[in-house]
TrEMBL record:
This is Citrate synthase. It comes from the Eukaryota. It comes from Aspergillus parasiticus. Gene3D superfamilies: Citrate Synthase, domain 1, glutathione-dependent formaldehyde- activating enzyme (gfa), MFS general substrate transporter like domains, Multidrug resistance protein D, PEBP-like. Keywords: Membrane, Metal-binding, Transferase, Transmembrane, Transmembrane helix, Transport, Zinc. The chain crosses the membrane at residues 592-609, 681-700, 763-787, 807-829, 836-852, 858-879, 927-956. The keyword Zinc applies. Residues 3-116 form the CENP-V/GFA domain.
Length: 1166
């Protein structure tokens, strides 16, 4: 019997169509204790789709342990809790078991406890299955197997309801006495003909729930994509996002360009074959001819990694392949019909061009029939992708050899023409002709049941119910008006008879997309034998999406694994110098250099050969240890061989690598990866480091004063260079001093006392005064530098609209600033040593360029980037010099400590800058960075040159914080609230004064025009995402003058306030209703920018209906507002005026729980 229950007042009832709960448990979490008012809550977990709730309910949403919302449902009459619905587990819902009917409650057998971490100590009852938090998901676990042959037990990991076939190879038995063909000793194998229960890839392109008949494309339902064009679907499936209007135009333009670029030899190849030829060989010939024209696109002819991991080549190849197949299909169809081929046009969509090329034109207009074109477009959406279908699988099998997409498509075309795939449409047409009339359908069905004949297009190996594409296809057929089509009547009669027959129902046999799909193509005008090829013009979207996903997978790593790699690299980068620094100070610079170079070279070679993520992770850690280990050595060598008066210049040069590498590395790495693949980066690093390593081994002398003193004591063992060894074996006019038994004691007496190699020495320096404070200062300054450079790309993109390449090139000034600083600042420090400074000149130069209240020109921003890099390098070098001066006997150790602090604080700053910008805004974040730098100024008075750089640094951060979110050179839209003065860009206004509608001035506006206003918050945190929230959409705004007769407008004209002198006698009033005004609601301690933009509203303005959801005054309706998309769809053009201001929260500050309950519908800071 189903589970049923009700609330206390019985106003709410529910029924779950299940025999028993999935889990009956005691829930000890704090939230459930509070909601139930008891020590724990008894819950009965049931499938959500099996539950029906009737009656007046309300819900309260709070954040669960997963970070996602938990909706707690209760009766709105008596307040009884009914259930809680977690967003983190959308398949289930937890009923409050106390509300179940009495007889059902008596039979409950709770055996599970969850959230025992919150269990109250006086609860003495213990159930069989306790879980500290939540039970592990049923999609993961361990499969326990007992091999009856050997009695051996095995545990096979289950991940996402899948076991690895490789894991089964560990199940082995003795091969003695067995058939050698069974390969018993090699481990257990899996036999699955047709891959009926085998997964071969993980993909995010589509999802199908076979039990419920749900099909999603990148998370979108079929109904959401119903009006999508071919270009929309291509961009969505291949590149993972639904395109903007501009992106869609770009895709269409690129496709048309490539269609026009198909060589004439392809045309001649197809035209040279008989018109009666089957479409399959014609298409295969066309594709082969196209591929022959571009041998440089074949990896076997050029480079093995032409596509693997090279997304630029992959993306270009996707466009070329889709375009080429469209042209070849058009050529084949027009050739077989005996009509002239018409080329595509830039003015048409892809589907329209396909119709034109294929000769599917209306006889009267010579244009594609709009109805047929619409039907083809909608069917293309349904047919664009269907998981691991035969065409995709065939293409991926070919792609596994890393070949080109045309070759993969050839495999897919050949597979598609089989009678068990797209070729089923041809077989279905033949079967319908054989049946002849609806009267013979029952006889035909009996023949199917007896196995005498086959019913094509019926049943699906995946779907247990009706194919979710069938009903949409039937709606397309209605638009094509096939009411007189006899074959369609036969098809509908087959479904009618089969759906009533137990034979089909018990086996879960229902029509699939092919059953009705062929009628769409015949009604459009395609011959039956070319329908498979026509369907491939649509399915090519999915084929290319899977090909791109396969080629871009490379090491098959996730974003979290990439972050793990970076984190591991930075940890090793900070720790390794603590070992090499102490080692170099005691054992010598030369052995430390040799060891680090060998580690680095070998790890780079291994990385270049890797195709395994775990191995790459380990090797990156080793590589980091080798490279960062040398960081301390360069400064140590400089300290060994130079005097303190020269230290500024030489230490500046030695620090170049630390500062210059982050600037030039992305540029060089991007070029290598773009054209040669990511492995080439490691080959380049291995070869370039080897080039430096060879002369180091041959010529580099030992400089460590612990080993060679002031250089007068010869080195021995591996501290001697090969050149020195070679010279010592040759006869010399001047004797070379070689340590001997007699000279060794005397020479060693001249050396500083050598100690044991101790890595902890590096850490102990953190607690020395003043060394520790200087290290902290250097680390904080470097962290502030990383904070600015980490936030810079997003600012360049949002303010100037730069793409990734241009953003990368914008870092060139940073490299230039580093180079100049290494020379210029080194000279300044040396002069400072002689008490000579040029500080006033540099301060004056920067003062002329620093102020920037509006978005500065890009050239000024690049100048600021140069300035910050110049000054950071200067500060870093000065503090390095100071540290070496303080620890001149152990320079490698102190520089290792410096690197440790720098790496860890820099990593922390990089991780925090974006959340801070989202939380507090750009200005507050970088003002905080400036305060951090200002806080270490007292420690830097030892060098006036450092003080100069700090001042320039503070000025730069202040300039960054002043960047306005408004477009450049936009006129100011003057407005005020009833309790404020007129507001200027960047003003701060108290939240309590923004509750009423603002008074908007008509100053500078044309009284003859109509205007449209948008008011939005740029800095909302909705759920877990930063987004934009719309606060007010007001069309039909008019200028009204105080001395005119406009004051007696119709009742729906709202006069916002009396006109005053500042607005020149005029204000803007709204003539009609829009999306109602929501007052700013920033949360406490936040920094939100609120922006007004005014647009000219043209006479033919139409509100984009796709934005009709914005009218409710709720966070759900207003959050996620895409400003640019709305402006494009509404055809508003550029804004004519704008303003922005900061709202400061001045209300009561609640506790965390109270703040959530007083928030605006879950949107933090609307």
């Amino acid at each position: 019997m189903p589970l049923s229950g009700h609330c206390l007042c019985k106003a709410v009832t529910y029924k779950a169509d299940v025999e028993a709960p999935l889990i009956t448990a005691y829930d000890h979490c704090d939230d459930c204790q509070r909601q139930s008012g008891s020590t724990y809550s008894l819950v009965a977990v049931v499938p959500k789709d099996k539950l029906t709730i009737n009656g007046p309910t309300k819900s309260y949403a709070g954040q669960g342990s997963s970070g996602k919302a938990v909706h707690r449902i209760f009766c709105s009459e008596c307040g009884s809790p009914i259930a809680h619905d977690p967003e983190a587990a959308p398949e289930i819902i937890a009923l409050k078991a106390g509300t179940l009917d009495v007889e059902i409650k008596k039979n409950l057998k709770p055996d599970t406890e969850i959230w025992t971490a919150s269990k109250l100590p006086f609860c003495q009852e213990h159930l069989a299955k306790p879980f500290e938090h939540m039970p592990p998901p049923m999609s993961s676990g361990v499969l326990h197997i007992v091999d009856s042959r050997t009695k051996q037990k095995y545990g096979i990991p289950i991940r996402r309801n899948v076991i690895s076939a490789i894991d089964l190879k560990s199940i082995k038995a003795p091969a003695a006495g067995t058939d050698r063909a069974d390969h018993v000793a090699d481990g257990l194998r899996v036999h699955d003909p047709g891959l009926q229960n085998t997964t071969v890839i993980e993909s995010a392109i589509s999802y199908s729930d076979h039990e419920r008949g749900v099909l999603l494309f990148r998370g979108y339902t079929l109904s959401q994509l119903w009006d999508s064009d071919f270009e929309d679907m291509l961009h969505l499936l291949v590149w993972g996002t639904y395109p903007t209007i501009q992106q869609k135009k770009d895709v269409n333009r690129k496709l048309t360009d490539q269609m026009l670029a198909v060589p004439d030899s392809v045309h001649r190849t197809i035209r040279g074959l008989p018109r009666t030829t089957s479409p399959l060989p014609l298409i295969l010939a066309g594709l082969s001819a196209y591929l022959a024209c571009f041998p440089d696109t074949i990896p076997a002819s050029t480079h093995a990694s032409l596509y693997q991991g090279n997304l630029r080549n992959v993306d270009h190849a996707v466009i070329r392949t889709v375009a080429a197949y469209g042209v070849i299909f058009g050529l084949v169809n027009s050739h077989r019909k005996g009509i002239d081929f018409q080329p595509p046009s830039q003015e048409n969509s892809y589907c329209a061009n396909l119709f034109i090329m294929a000769g599917l034109l209306d006889r009267h207009s010579s244009r594609p029939d709009p109805t047929k074109l619409s039907c083809f477009r909608r069917f293309a959406m349904l047919n664009a992708e269907h998981g691991m279908a035969l065409t995709v699988f065939s293409a991926l099998v070919t792609a596994s050899s890393l070949t080109d997409p045309i070759s993969c498509l050839i495999s897919a075309v050949a597979a598609a023409y089989g009678p068990l795939h797209f070729g089923a449409t041809v077989s279905a047409q033949r079967t319908l002709r054989e049946i002849g009339s609806t009267d013979k359908v029952p006889e035909f069905i009996e023949g199917v049941k007896n196995g005498r004949t086959k019913l094509f297009g019926y049943g699906h190996r995946s779907y247990k119910g009706l194919d979710p594409r069938v009903r949409p296809i039937q709606s397309i057929l209605k638009d094509l008006d096939l009411s007189k089509n006899d074959y369609l009547k036969i098809t509908e009669r087959i479904e009618e008879v089969a759906s009533a027959d137990d034979y089909f129902r018990h086996r879960g046999l229902y029509p699939n997309a092919d059953f009705y799909g062929n009628f769409v193509f015949t009604a459009i005008g395609f011959d039956p034998d070319i329908i498979p090829a026509a369907m491939l013009t649509q399915r090519i979207i999915g084929i290319m999406a899977h090909w791109r996903e396969y080629m871009s997978a490379d090491l098959d790593v996730t974003s979290s694994q990439i972050n793990l790699t970076i984190t591991t690299y930075m940890i090793c980068q900070g720790i390794a110098p603590t070992l090499t620094g102490s080692f170099a100070d005691q054992a010598g610079r030369r052995p430390a250099y040799i060891l680090c170079f060998l580690i680095y070279i070998i790890s780079n070679i291994a990385l270049a050969l890797q195709h395994s993520y775990p191995a790459l992770l380990v090797l990156r850690a080793i590589q980091s240890s080798g490279s960062s280990g040398t960081v301390a050595l360069a400064s140590a060598v400089a300290a060994d061989v130079i005097t303190s008066a020269e230290r500024g210049t030489y230490m500046s040069i030695t620090s170049l690598g630390n500062i210059l590498a982050p600037s030039l590395g992305p540029i060089l790495g991007g070029v290598l990866s773009e054209y040669l693949g990511w492995q080439s980066i490691f080959w380049f690093l291995a070869m370039s480091s080897t080039i430096f390593f060879i002369p180091l081994v041959l010529f580099f002398p030992e400089t460590c004063r612990t080993i060679v003193g002031d250089g007068s004591i010869p080195a021995s063992g591996w501290n001697r260079s090969i050149l020195n060894r070679w010279i010592s074996k040759r006869p010399h006019r001047r004797p070379v001093l070689i340590p001997s038994a007699s000279t060794e004691p005397a020479l060693q007496a001249q050396l500083p006392k050598r100690r044991m190699i101790n890595p902890l020495t590096t850490l102990s320096l953190l607690f020395h005064l003043p060394t520790g404070l200087i290290l902290l200062s250097n680390g904080l300054i470097f962290a502030s530098y990383y904070a600015i450079t980490a936030g810079l790309p997003s600012q360049l993109r949002s303010i100037y609209g730069l793409n990734d390449l241009n953003i990368g090139l914008s870092f060139i000034p940073m490299g230039a600033g580093t180079l100049l600083s290494a020379t210029f600042n080194g000279i300044i420090v040396d002069w400072n040593y002689r008490r000579m400074l040029l500080a006033p000149i540099l301060i004056l130069l920067y003062a002329l360029t620093a102020p920037a209240t509006n978005p500065p020109p890009l050239v000024l921003t690049l100048t600021l980037i140069f300035t910050i890099s110049f000054n950071l390098t200067a500060i870093y070098n000065i503090l390095n010099i100071l540290l070496v001066d303080l620890h001149y006997t152990t320079p490698a150790t102190i520089m290792a400590t410096n690197n440790l602090v720098r790496c860890f604080l820099g990593a922390a700053a990089t991780a925090l800058v974006h959340p801070c910008i989202q939380r507090w805004g750009v200005r507050a974040t970088y003002c905080l960075v400036a305060i951090v730098v200002l806080g270490v100024v007292p420690l830097l008075w030892m060098s006036l040159g450092t003080m100069l750089c700090i001042l320039l640094y503070l000025l730069w951060t202040g300039a960054v914080a002043q960047i306005s979110p408004l477009p450049a050179d936009i006129p100011i839209l003057y407005f005020r609230y009833p309790e404020t003065s007129w507001i200027y860009p960047g003003d701060v206004v108290l939240k309590s004064r923004t509750g009423d509608l603002p008074i908007i001035s008509s100053r500078g506006l044309n009284p003859e025009l109509t205007y449209l206003l948008l008011f939005f918050d740029l800095d909302v945190i909705y759920g877990m995402n930063a987004t934009v929230a719309l606060h007010w959409y007001q069309p039909d705004m008019l200028c009204t003058m105080q001395d005119t007769g406009l004051m007696d407008m119709s009742d729906n004209t709202r006069i916002l306030d009396k006109v005053d002198g500042y607005s020149n006698g005029g204000i803007l009033v709204n003539k009609s209703m829009g999306a109602e005004y929501i007052a700013p609601r920033p949360p406490p301690f936040s920094h939100h920018r609120y922006v007004y933009l005014l647009f000219t509203q043209m006479g033919d303005y139409q509100f984009p209906q796709c934005y009709s959801y914005i009218f409710p005054q709720t966070a759900k309706a207003r959050a996620g507002f895409d400003i640019q998309q709305f402006v494009d769809l509404a055809r508003l053009g550029a804004p004519v005026a704008g303003n922005y201001f900061i709202v400061e929260y001045d209300g009561p500050v609640y506790s965390v729980r109270g703040f959530r309950s007083h928030g605006f519908g879950g949107g933090e800071g609307m």
